[in-house]
Structure formats: structure tokens, C-alpha cells
């Protein structure tokens, strides 16, 4: 029987499958790539061929242009593709729209690479699916016991309560353009807020793409406010929700709104120092990654013979796994950004 290292192993370009001659989420351009999801630290342009879900391919096209790869190979969840005798199929990861786990099977060995994932229900993407396997490759972005994410809807309730408490202030919400923005909008709608939500131009294309894939976001309007506009025009944003990428909050764009409440939605808002460094007045703890309890429960649910850990707090999760009786090892992959989809 083939060994796990012979089927998949880390290289400077990313996780490589020698029998199939493909990489999973490579950090450099390669001839053939399997992409788990559309965040930029996992989905790069320039590959010769890309296998991914249709939604992920559409996200990559929206971000990089339609010529981001020489050949696109869409694969629906559960659809098996054979590459040089290696069976590859995708299972839902629950991270963002189109996100997948890459399941690799060869000569009786099954390995699952999760990419990024979460276990809680998300109205904007398909829920994580447990896939039993011999080797489970898990992310560990929030792989420390201190990271236990609160209830999503309770966090959104803090934002809506602030709107009622400060009706004269614009509420500027920092969200990443892919996944977090659409999830926050959906949760706000679910909570009963039906007024227009204003969005920075950097969020427009991906919000439209989500709606094209059947995720309703309700009325969205551009958060445009030119420098020097009359105070009456600025006043229309008082008591309104305005979403923008974190980078925009260091720009003059954010300072044009009336007495803004700086808000940031991230799992890292659990760390008070991070909120303070960003000048966040209302931290919202909302992550698109599994927290400590979800990570450990997932390992128990999958029950692999071996756990490989990457993307984050590798040592802590490996140590927990060993104490639980699992064989575990850190992968030490490089080139992945903890902030892209937290």
C-alpha cells in the first residue's frame, strides 16, 4: 500500500501529489492545481489548469479576469475526477461560497485536505461534510483553546443594538470582500433589518456573484460620499450600516461619514489588543474558520489514522491530538495569510 507521504507531501510550491502530478492550493504557478476555495492565499492566478467547484472558478474569474488559467475544470461536490489514476473529488467545507475539501484516493489510501473550514451553519454556503479518511489535513487558524467563537446571531445583535443606541452615527463595518461581507449581510437580514445596506465599491462584484449563485442579500447601495459634500448629504448615512474592506478604514473614505462607529468582524476580535490596535470601537467576533471546539470535534468525527495540521496554531492541535491517541504532525506550509478569510 502506498504511504501518505508518497501520495501527498509539502513542497515549496504547496501540497503536491506525485502520482497525480498536481498541487492542492499551490502558492506558486503550477501546471495543474486543485483549488479548495477562492481566497487569494489559496487561489492564485497563472496555473496551467485548475480543478475547483464552479463557484470557486467564478470567484477566481471575478478577481483575476477570465484568463486566470489556461484551462478550467469545474467539479460539482461529489463528482469524481481521475488524474493519472488518482481519484479526486470535492466535499463541502463550509468556509465561503464554493469552498471545498479535496478528497484524494489512490491504491486504497484516502487523504482529505480541508483547505479552510467551519462547522456552524452559514446561510451563504453549503455546510461542512464529514468525510472519513486515513489522513486528515486540517487547518488550525484558531487552534488554541482560548478561541471559542460566540453565537453568530448574538454578535450581529450587538451591531443592531448599537444602531438603536446611536442613531446619529454611521456604523462602519470592516469585512473581507469574499465570504465575510456576504455572511454579515445575510445575518443582518435574518435578524429582520430590511433597510438598504451601503457597501464600498470593492465589495460590489462579489456581492453580485453571490446573488447570481442564489444567495439573496437584499437592497444594497453604494457607500459613495465625495470629499466636501454638503452636510445634508453626509447626514443620510447617520444610523445606517456601511460595509467596507479593512483597508478602506485607514483611508480618507472612512472619515467622511458622520461620527462613525468603527466596527470589525473577525475571529481575531477575541483578542482585545488586536481590536485596540485597529481602533475598533465595537468588535464583532465572527469567523469563517473553525474555533478550537470545532477543530477538535471535527478530528473526532473524521477519526483518521493520522492528522496533519497546517495554516496556524499547528503545535497546539497536534499536541491535543497526540493526547487523544491520534498520530499527528505539523506541515509547516508557507504562503498562507491568516487574515484573508478569518
**Average pLDDT over all residues:** 93
Strand order in the largest sheet: 7-8-9-10-11-18-19
| Measured distance between first and last alpha carbons | 38 Å
Largest sheet: 7 strands, mixed
CATH homologous superfamily (4th level) name of the largest domain: Ribonuclease Z/Hydroxyacylglutathione hydrolase-like
Q: What is the structural class?
A: alpha/beta
- CATH architectural grouping of the largest domain: 4-Layer Sandwich
Number of helices: 10
In the CATH scheme, what's the topology name of the largest domain? Metallo-beta-lactamase, Chain A
Please give the share of residues in helix: 25-40%
> Tell me, what's the shape?
globular
Beta-strand content bin: 15-25%
Q: Secondary-structure element sequence?
A: HEEEEEHEEEEEEHEHEHEHEHEHEHEHE
Q: Radius of gyration from the CA trace?
A: 21 Å
Sequence stretches where pLDDT stays below 50 over 5 or more residues? none
Pfam families: Lactamase_B
Organism: Ponticaulis profundi
GO molecular function, one term: exonuclease activity
EC number: 3.1.-.-
Amino acid at each position: 500500500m502506498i504511504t501518505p507521504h508518497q501520495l501527498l507531501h509539502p513542497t515549496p510550491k504547496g501540497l503536491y501529489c506525485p502520482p497525480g502530478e498536481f498541487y492542492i492550493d499551490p502558492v506558486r504557478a503550477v501546471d495543474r492545481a486543485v483549488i479548495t476555495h477562492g481566497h487569494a492565499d489559496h487561489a492564485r492566478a497563472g496555473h496551467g489548469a485548475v480543478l475547483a467547484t464552479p463557484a470557486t472558478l467564478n470567484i477566481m474569474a471575478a478577481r483575476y479576469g477570465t484568463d486566470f488559467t489556461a484551462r478550467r475544470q469545474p467539479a460539482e461536490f461529489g463528482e469524481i475526477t481521475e488524474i493519472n489514476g488518482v481519484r479526486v473529488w470535492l466535499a463541502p467545507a463550509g468556509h465561503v461560497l464554493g469552498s471545498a475539501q479535496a478528497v484524494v484516493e489512490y491504491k486504497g489510501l484516502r487523504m482529505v485536505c480541508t483547505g479552510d473550514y467551519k462547522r456552524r451553519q452559514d446561510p451563504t454556503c453549503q455546510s461542512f461534510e464529514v468525510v472519513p479518511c486515513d489522513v486528515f489535513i486540517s487547518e488550525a487558524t484558531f487552534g488554541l483553546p482560548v478561541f471559542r467563537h460566540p453565537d453568530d446571531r448574538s454578535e450581529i445583535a450587538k451591531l443592531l443594538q448599537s444602531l438603536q443606541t446611536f442613531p446619529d452615527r454611521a456604523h462602519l463595518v470592516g469585512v473581507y470582500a469574499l465570504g465575510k461581507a456576504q455572511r454579515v449581510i445575510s445575518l443582518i437580514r435574518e435578524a429582520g433589518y430590511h433597510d438598504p445596506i451601503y457597501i464600498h465599491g470593492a465589495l460590489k462584484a462579489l456581492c453580485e456573484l453571490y446573488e447570481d449563485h442564489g444567495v439573496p442579500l437584499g437592497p444594497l447601495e453604494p457607500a459613495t460620499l465625495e470629499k466636501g459634500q454638503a452636510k445634508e448629504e453626509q447626514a443620510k448615512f447617520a444610523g445606517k450600516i456601511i460595509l467596507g474592506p479593512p483597508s478602506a478604514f485607514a483611508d480618507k473614505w472612512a472619515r467622511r461619514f458622520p461620527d462613525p462607529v468603527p466596527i470589525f468582524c473577525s475571529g481575531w476580535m477575541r483578542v482585545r489588543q488586536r481590536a485596540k490596535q485597529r481602533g475598533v470601537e465595537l468588535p464583532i467576533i465572527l469567523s469563517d474558520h473553525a474555533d478550537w471546539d470545532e477543530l477538535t470535534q471535527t478530528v473526532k468525527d473524521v477519526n483518521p489514522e493520522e492528522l496533519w495540521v497546517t495554516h496556524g496554531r499547528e503545535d497546539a492541535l497536534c499536541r491535543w491530538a497526540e493526547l487523544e491517541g491520534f498520530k499527528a504532525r505539523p506541515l509547516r506550509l508557507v504562503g498562507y495569510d491568516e487574515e484573508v478569510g478569518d
